[in-house]
Each structure stands twice: as structure tokens, then as C-alpha cells.
Design brief:
By secondary structure, this protein is an all-alpha fold. It has one domain. 82% of the residues lie in helices and 0% in strands. It is built from 3 helices and no strands. It has helices at residues 2-24, 30-58, 60-75. Helix 1 packs antiparallel against helix 2 (30-58). The longest helix has 29 residues, at 30-58.
Length: 83
């Protein structure tokens, strides 16, 4: 439980820093960064039960492996919107 709190605390600090940087450095509206965080939280809230159901059906390890592979593929340039 404490590890989860620590992870969320660092994530919150990072997101607050990111919104500040978006407003100051990129000269974008501060509301844009806040809106992105809120939309992200809503999507996460909506998809978490689905991920839990899939994990129960196919196994946590298999779902984590597939999710990690998808994320890795997105990092490779030229592959599905990669860098």
C-alpha cells in the first residue's frame, strides 16, 4: 500500500511540474495541461474495470507482457506513432 502511495505522489508532482512547464515554456494555456490530465484520469477510470476483467480471464502476467510489448513497439521509430 505504501509503495502505491509513493508512486502516486511522484506522479502528481511530475504532472504539476509538467502543467507549469507547458504554460511557461511552451506558452500554451494552463487550462490545456489541466484538461489533458483530467481527460487522462477519466479514461483511466473508465478502462480500469475492463483491464481487471481481462486480467481475470487471461491472467495478470499475460496482460502485463502484452501491454509492455505494445508500449515498447510505440517507442520504436516508424512503428504506430512512435517517436
Amino acid at each position: 500500500m505504501s509503495l502505491r502511495w509513493g508512486e502516486n505522489g511522484i506522479s502528481t508532482i511530475f504532472l504539476a511540474f509538467l502543467v507549469g512547464q507547458l504554460a511557461n515554456v511552451a506558452k500554451d494555456s494552463p487550462g490545456l495541461g489541466t484538461l489533458a490530465i483530467v481527460v487522462s484520469a477519466v479514461v483511466d477510470f473508465a478502462t480500469a474495470p475492463l483491464a481487471g476483467l481481462l486480467s481475470d480471464r487471461f491472467g495478470r502476467r499475460r496482460m502485463n507482457e502484452r501491454g509492455s510489448l505494445r508500449r515498447l513497439m510505440r517507442l520504436v521509430p516508424g512503428r504506430r506513432g512512435g517517436l
